[in-house]
Design goal:
This protein has about 260 residues and is an alpha/beta fold. About 40% of the residues lie in helices and about 15% in strands. It has one domain: TIM Barrel (Alpha-Beta Barrel). The chain has ten helices and eight strands. The protein has an eight-stranded parallel beta barrel with strand order 1-2-3-4-5-6-7-8, surrounded by five helices. Helix 7 links the parallel strand 5 and strand 6. The longest helix is centred in the middle third of the chain and has 14 residues.
Amino acid sequence: MGPGFLSLPTMPGKPRGWGRTHVLDKGLTPDAVAGALELTGEHIDVWKFGWGIAYLDRGLHRKLRLLRAHQVSSCLGGTLLEIAWSQGRADECLAWAERTGFDAVEVSRGVVEMALDDKRELIKKAGHAFTVYAETGVKNPAAALSAAQWQDEIAEDLAAGATWIVTEGRESGTVGIYDGSGLPRQDIIEAAVSAAGAGRVMFEAPRTAQQAWLINRFGPAVNLANIAPDDVLPLATLRLGLRADTAALSLNEPP
C-alpha cells in the first residue's frame, strides 16, 4: 500500500475481520461504481444499497457483478426489509434478495414499529441465507434509546444469530450514537462496545469528524459504516495517520 517509505499503522488485506469499511450507495450508476471500485476497491468491505434503492435500481445486476469481482460484500438496506415486513412480505423480500445475488442483509427497526421478538425472528430467518448486519437505534431523534436499551437489544440480536452489529447514525450523522449536532454520544457508544465487543460493531460515521473521533478512540482497526464512496480514500488516510485529525497514529504520539 503506497510507495512504502513511511512507517504507518498496519491494516490487513481482504477478507478483513477488522478495520472494515462499509459504503452507502445512494443510487450511483454502474459506471460510477466501477470507477469507485477501480480506485478504492481494496479499501471497501461492504457495499450497502441504502433505503429502498435496490428495489428501483436498473443497474443492480451489473453492480452486484462488479462487487463480487472486487471481493466486496453486497448488503440490502434495512429500510426495504422493514417495509416488506410491515406488509407481511419479508419472506418475499428475502427470497428476491437471494435470487438477485445479495450475500448480506441489514435487519433493523428504525422506521417501523417492530417488537424485539419480531426482530429476533427476522434475524434468524435472514441468517439462513445471508450474513446479517443487525442495526440498533432508531431514526427518530425524539425516540432515542437509553444505553441499557442499546445493550439489551444488541445482546438479543447477537443471540439470534447476527454476525455484525450496526449502530444507527443515518446519512446525516445526527441520531443514534450522535446528538443533534453530530457529536458522539459516548455513553451509547461504550454501551454498544460493552455488549458486542468493538470488533463486531460497525459504527455508522458519515462525517469526517466522527470517523476521526472513532479512530482516535478505538484505533485504525475500528469498523466504520455509511461511508460515502467519495470518502473511502480520505478515510484510508485517517486510518493510516496521513491526515491532521489522526496524525498521532503516524507520529507515535498519543491521540
